[in-house]
Amino acid sequence: MLLTIHHAPCTGGSIISQILAAATNSILVSEISPFAKISGDRSNPIHFNPTSLLWLLEYNSRDLSEKNKLKYFISQLDISIEHSKELNKNLLLRDHTHTTFNWYNDELFLMNKRLGSSLLECIKYFYHKEEKKIDFPLIKPIISVRHPLDSFIAARYKGWLSGMCRDGINIDNYCERLLNFQNYMKINESAIVIRYEDLCLSINESLKKLFLNLNINYEIPSLEQINVINVTGKSGRKSINIEPRERIIELVNNELISDLESSKNYKKYCILNEYNPNYLSPPTS
């Protein structure tokens, strides 16, 4: 089975993807963005990389076209699925949602279809393109959420909000983008939501609720099984333990408090995910 997980920055995506991979006997492939630069940052020196034909090609020429990047992604996905099947494993793709989702609902199109999630559109294109039946079911996407104040504080501290808040970095703009993301994914992709806080408090109950309607076998993984899985992008969490984090209350200044009190989108997002909007209270009741 092919699973995908999507999330805004600083919402627990790294640890949640590790837990899901361990629980579902999945190979985890992290931070996927189909149309990103293949060669990455060219300020880094070229290095010996004998199997990466396209990396070397792009490094010494220019970025590949979107058409060729799509072909490249499709070929890699095909091989990844075959490899997972050979190992009798599922495959879990964690996308780099920060760059793959159309946060502002802009006029962006992929294969003549208005773009929401570029990763999901590429995956669906692969599944529809294949003439033969793919014996590897595509599961409903999973999105992870966290209390918006905690994720906002952490992402702002890291300097990761410019792409999501191009109209100004404040809690109202931020929550409007989160609402756009979650509503699109639920309405258009039938996504299943998992709360970071619930998973920290009880992995057992959280996974039971998540997999209730997904028709996939899972087991409750041990901490050792979770931490043996490698993941990129784990820039926020250094501890190997899984437990709720205290809010960094000193980062909630008077300006932010005022924004919280006046923000309609903050309140909407808290209601949608059953979060406590009071910044002095725990995220969940």
Describe this structure as you would to a colleague.
It is built from twelve helices and seven strands. By secondary structure, it is an alpha/beta fold. The chain has a single domain, classed as P-loop containing nucleotide triphosphate hydrolases (Rossmann fold). The chain has a five-stranded parallel β-sheet, sandwiched between helices. It has a two-stranded antiparallel sheet with strand order 4-5. A hairpin with a 2-residue loop joins strand 4 (109-110) and strand 5 (113-114). The longest helix has 21 residues, at 66-86. The protein starts with a strand and ends in a 13-residue tail after the last helix. The relative contact order is 0.18.
Gyration radius, rounded: 19 Å
**What coarse outline follows from CA principal-axis ratios?**
globular
Low-confidence stretches: none
H/E element sequence? EHEHHEHEEHEHHEHHHHH
- What would you call the structural class? alpha/beta
CATH superfamily: P-loop containing nucleotide triphosphate hydrolases
What count of helical segments does DSSP give?
12
Helix content, binned percent: 40-55%
The total tally of domains equals 1
Bin the strand percentage: 5-15%
Q: Going across the biggest sheet, name each strand in turn.
A: 2-3-1-6-7
Mean pLDDT: 91
- Looking at the overall shape, the CATH architecture is 3-Layer(aba) Sandwich
What's the count of strands? 7
Q: Major beta sheet, specifics?
A: 5 strands, parallel
Regarding CATH, which class? Answer: Alpha Beta
Through-space gap between termini: 35 Å
CATH fold title: Rossmann fold
